[in-house]
Write a structure and sequence with these properties.
The chain is an alpha/beta fold and about 150 residues long. The chain has one domain: Sugar-phosphate isomerase, RpiB/LacA/LacB (Ribose 5-phosphate Isomerase B, Chain: A), CATH 3.40.1400.10. The protein is built from six helices and five strands. It has a five-stranded parallel beta sheet with strand order 2-1-3-5-4, with helices on both faces. Helix 1 links the parallel strand 1 and strand 2. It is globular and about 40 Å long.
Length: about 150
């Protein structure tokens, strides 16, 4: 079972709550970093906190959620070592892991329903990085972080 760090803004709060229960029932250890209600909240620090937990090794992978998931993905990706992928279908969830070694999943709570979100999370969790030619590309992505 995995250690998963999860965080959302107010728009992703309801789906986050569902996923916390879903993952916990599967035996995963889930670290909920907020938001803790549907009251408006700024998400960048919450999502960066998820990313930091993953990079520090306190979580095996992370999930960030918002209305669309776009801003949350962007915020998480500002943390050096995070490869956050916005996945609103099973194909992108699988490819994010297989080809890009994504370590943070971003979801749009106003884009995907509960059932699809469960399937996306399950696919993301179950998919292994293929390595091979993809490792070279992941290494190039990582090297871009050194430019700044």
């Amino acid at each position: 079972m995995a250690r998963i760090s999860i965080g959302s803004d107010h728009a992703g709060y309801d789906l986050k709550g569902h996923l916390v229960s879903f993952l916990t029932l599967q035996g995963h250890e889930v670290d909920d970093r907020g938001a803790y209600s549907t009251d408006s909240v700024d998400y960048p620090e919450i999502c960066a906190g998820v990313g930091r937990a993953v990079v520090a090794g306190d979580a095996d992978w992370g999930i960030v959620l918002g209305g669309s998931g776009q801003g949350e993905q962007l915020a998480a990706n500002k943390v050096r070592g995070v490869r956050a992928a916005l996945c609103n279908c099973l194909y992108t969830a699988r490819m994010a892991r297989e080809h890009n070694d994504a370590n943070v999943l971003s979801l749009g709570g106003r884009v995907v329903g509960v059932g699809l979100a469960e399937e996306i999370v399950t696919t993301f969790a179950a998919t292994e990085f293929e390595g091979g030619r993809h490792q070279r590309r992941v290494d190039q992505i990582t090297a871009l972080e050194a430019d700044f």
